[in-house]
């Protein structure tokens, strides 16, 4: 056996921990290989910490293997455990790996190198999406570099079957259960999350939202186009990073087209273009304004023309804006004191104004976009425990190890009633969550600490949902899982940053309240967490720097601007400038509307109070020495609200991976990919999905979903024998799998309240269920369509016989039907039938030739009704539909009963009139028409 050790560079994080995990994984692989080569009758090897001996695999056979009778919850023999584990060939070729759509089907030992080689083979074959059971991995090929990452930009891009499957599964679960669904994208910055989210959103609209022609799609596409331009920036690792930071300059012909599209999208959202442009121009010009210390008390300004231009754009006077930037009001023991700021303070106030204008403009656009399409209801605020109870009542498949099913006692019935009420109160939605990706820029600021905390939180949510819940459920119900999944728990890092009293962010809030310094803050956190292995000093040591070991690597943070950034305040002297009586630009006044309303609620303005630069859900208007809510507190509040929403939703995970660090198209760097495989714990996920029990279902829910796989007559269908029905269903499923000679290892276990399923058998169950339902649907449709056709045939024949139109005389040669003799009268004498002499005299009288038929008289240009002669044209009404038989396939016009038509003359056909209707001319029998009262005489 060859052991490959992949080495990373010196900056790779936690090398010793990774080597420990590799050694533990390799030891497990050695035991697996030894068991596979072990002769029958020998003693199986034992995995350290695995919870017992690992049974040797049975030889490959098409017959189903007998179930192993394990210990039951009630000491009653019940079949559980390992079923049909097939031997797998070693060392797959690159060709077979490129066609492998699910990593749980990897042949041979499941190692980090095998996973990486499979991803590389698929990447080189342009297969960028790979499943790990229900979880999807996306390797970014960087083929869309420069894409504006909007809904409109994804038009024409073919959606992969894997992404379509994620959307279809989310829609299916939402329609079947009514519970909210969340498609969660995670990965480092630049891994392609935003691009994938746009593809998913477009597909979601195509499947369940009415398509791209709906108003909701157009409004959302316009919002993304507008916000993408205002909320994207180029960073060291991502040229299209989703945040407000830095700038991106483009000088291309396409840039003008994008600007025009951006302008049009503002119009779709109902936001005046000039209002936004005036604010953005003012923000840009503020960067050219510089305050310097003057000779006297006041400061001098460099760029006075730009300052006046800013004042003009914002609709205020230049003097008022200058005073708002260079003076401040203080409240000293009830006395208001106005002081002049120095150059440094004035420049900070200028930056605060630029931030406030920009952030509030973006927030206004977001509010406008949200107001166009609001959710129908508000989500409930349930705890994670109650959320599990909600999931327990659903009778559908458990995805990602969520508990499903219901108990039968009175307590669970009352809980079911409560959960049903909650289910209807929480109107189910399908959300796509594109969160911040992990970053390690140099130097890292407070914003990056918040971003990485968000990434840590999403990783913890993934660990809890995938690993922790599965392992704890197996342990609680006495299930002995053969695979030991040793995942990295990042709770210590989250506690380090966000703990209530001793967390770094809480200590930062305290330091801001006492007006401390960056050095004192760093010193205090190092003393508080001196025994925490996640916090350490960087090299070289600096009094303002500290380092944190995150789940994806080490990051060095510079606390120089932590306090100022966290305060995030703007003084009322500057806000008062935009009051409506002194500002003629209504949009600027609207940006500070809530603050101005609170500020002018009293007579004294300004009075030395502070506001938040970035808008919040509530107005922060507090006196000088009282603590104002900080940036990190607001971030915590928003993150907590997001987590409360996710707790009540069923997640579908999409894990995005960078293929290289240069954003080069179709380049696969093994070191970069391996580092992300470790941080995202892909190998641990593959091990759990391939050999563990990641899914569990209540017995009743399992029977309700998969009872179609067993003969109906053999099922007990009683709550007392629900486990017997489960075993019967699984027995037939294992028979079907044995006949198909599947190479997938499948196993299940019966617990106290749940049946535990491996990913392999879950896929087989879903496949067989889908095939059975398809066959049943085909049979039902066949029977119904046959019956319907037979039923309709007799009815059609009856209708055709009853409604058959009279045969016209032209159809029988144009001769008048011979009158029938009266019954009982003798036939006339042959000599009395015809007198040739009388006939000859009559012909001579009228000038007719006896040898020729008489000529057809010319058509009259009128008709006679009663004693009135009516000329053409005439207005008549259809007495019945013509033609009557419309089933002949003729595409000609049809005149319906009651239609008003125009008769323009007599037809050359005997007994017909020429009719015009809707620019069409038809020859209609005379008896089909009746004269309308108002006619042209």
TrEMBL record:
Region Actin-binding: start-end pairs: 639-661
Polar residues: compositionally biased ranges: 82-100
CDD domains with a match to the protein in the record: MYSc_Myo20 (cd14881)
Molecular function terms, GO-annotated: actin filament binding; ATP binding; cytoskeletal motor activity
GO CC term (a single one): cytoplasm
Bias kind Pro residues: ranges: 818-829
Family that this chain belongs to: Belongs to the TRAFAC class myosin-kinesin ATPase superfamily. Myosin family.
Protein name: Myosin motor domain-containing protein
Organism of origin: Diabrotica balteata
Taxonomic path: Eukaryota, Metazoa, Ecdysozoa, Arthropoda, Hexapoda
